[in-house]
Amino acid sequence: MNRFRVVRVVLIGLAVLAGVVLALSLGVRLYGAQRLRSESARFEREVGPLNLLTFVRPRVPVEENVVTWLRPGILAVVLFPNERAVVGKLSGSPASTWTKDELATLELLIERNGPAFEILGRARGLTASNWDLEYEKGNATKLPDLLAAMNAGKLVAARGRLALGRGDREAALASAEVLGALARSHELENLTIMLLIGSSLERLQLGLIREIVTSPEADGRELDRIEASLSGVDLARAFRETLRGDAAAMRQDVEGQEFQDLMPRAIPRSLAVGVAKLMVAGAIEARRVVEPTLFGPVKAPIDDPGETYRNASWWERLKAVYGPHIRSAAARGTATTSARELARLAIVLRRDALASGSYSATFVTPTDPLTGEAFAFAMSGSGVELRSTTRPDILKSIFPLGATLSQSLYVWTLPSASRSTTPSPSPAGRRG
After folding, report:
1. How many helices (H) and strands (E) does the chain have?
2. Whether 90 contacts 161, CB under 8 Å
3. CB-based contacts of 102, cutoff 8 Å, min separation 6
4. How far apart are the first and last CA of the chain?
């Protein structure tokens, strides 16, 4: 009899526990759904619609689409793992600083990748772009090979620097134009990762352009071509749109049946879905709150995400897994725009000086989007120095990788106004 009572008590206890768990699961699911609806509605009022169809880009005829040439050109590049680090280094440094071994490696790679350069070269002059991404699929959208795009961009940049060091200015200009096409095509897409790749490619282009524009041999024709190759994408607006797209993709994912089917069987389905919706609601809320502060000058170093969440609650850390560190991403856009505007300013000054024979000592510089202050301008002998007044620690926080190349983009020393016809010597080896 006592044994029967014990079994009955245990069964009743298990039934009560199961009921509590079920009630808790249903409660969490209902609360998660309500929070997601509430935060989504507020986000749409204050930021913009969470509709992935609004990101679908207009179709481009294949013969006008720069991607027609970029996609096969990128995939045609052949770099083995041990060669990528060398190309990365050479893409961001003047040819005069390379070793003989590095130079020999690059020459081998240029010969091997001749067909890829031929295909990529056909992208020059084309501005219409569409990578045919299926935005309506949200985070399930199939992306192009972005690592291959970066490797191709680095190889093109290194080839352009070598050409400039050897006096082949036409090949250097062509490389800058290919990099411009690569950068612009990625920056036009409404995905954060595509924008980050595009802005990285643009900084590779700006590094090469800086060498061309600041060389004494630059002339008006070259300056016109370089200016035409610069990206015109409004990166601040683009990153704002991708923030909205990230939020829309997260919401679509968590509300889809496929996401629910992936939930672990050991956890009650209602509980798992409810917690996931609470996480996404929190992530959407975080994006709404931070959105007004993302754009404009960067006055202090960007926080390291690891440090930001070191002392955060487990819930804040859990929410943080949804998407990249958006403040850092937006700062990269602002900094890249700053470097682009500095390049435009240098081109204008060089063009005017070539026409008039001197630089204007009273030139008024525009506002630097990175600092909110005017670009610095100073006469330097018979030339001028242009620079951003941003601090090195801010740049290092924005570009923790590739800081050397990135920081060099914010100081330009323009040569004498009179054009030199004597090529600059290059330890990389000028072939006679």
Report:
1. 17, 3
2. yes
3. 86, 89, 90
4. 107
CB neighbours of residue 348 within 10 Å: 14
Three-state DSSP at 388 gives coil
The identity of residue 249, as a single letter, is A
Q: Which pLDDT does position 422 carry in this prediction?
A: 46
Report pLDDT digits (tens) over 61-79: 999 999 999 999 999 999 9
Nearest to 398 by CA among 317, 340, 336: 336
Which tokens belong to 267? 């956890």
Whether 254 has a pLDDT exceeding 90, the answer reads no
CB of 386 within 8 A of CB of 342? yes
- Domain residue spans of the chain: 20-53+240-328, 67-234+334-414
CA 133 – CA 409 distance, rounded (Å): 32
Tens digits of per-residue pLDDT, 117-158? Answer: 999 999 999 999 999 999 888 888 899 999 999 999 999 999
The Cα 280–Cα 283 span in angstroms is 5
Coil, strand or helix at 152: helix
